[in-house]
Amino acid sequence: MPPRYRIIVDLSQLMLHLLEGDTVVKSYPVGIGTIASASPEGLFKIINKQPNPGGPFGAFWMGLSKPHYGIHGTNRPDSVGKRSSHGCIRMHNADVLDLAAKVSVGTEVRIRK
């Protein structure tokens, strides 16, 4: 059975959209990579999920099929809504926990401009 949801990260809007089919069911503000360390564009999958990963990754980590990149929380909530990361998709901790409860390993993640 395919995953119920898919994710689109819109880099130009600094937003992550959760879709069920073709319908956006929830949108979250995100922090993205700086100009020097831009977030990768393309089609990826969530390959692992880890609560409380430690370090700067906030309340939850979801690793992407592009090595060293993920969607994660942050201990710097002021960095959400800006170009602030080393390429990862950074979310408020409450938002990343909400998202992580809805998506599973294998969920498609499209990162686009």
UniProtKB/TrEMBL annotation:
Top-level division of the source organism's lineage: Bacteria
Enzyme class at the top of the EC tree: transferase
EC code: 2.3.2.-
Keywords annotated in UniProt: Acyltransferase, Transferase
Protein's name according to its UniProt entry: L,D-transpeptidase
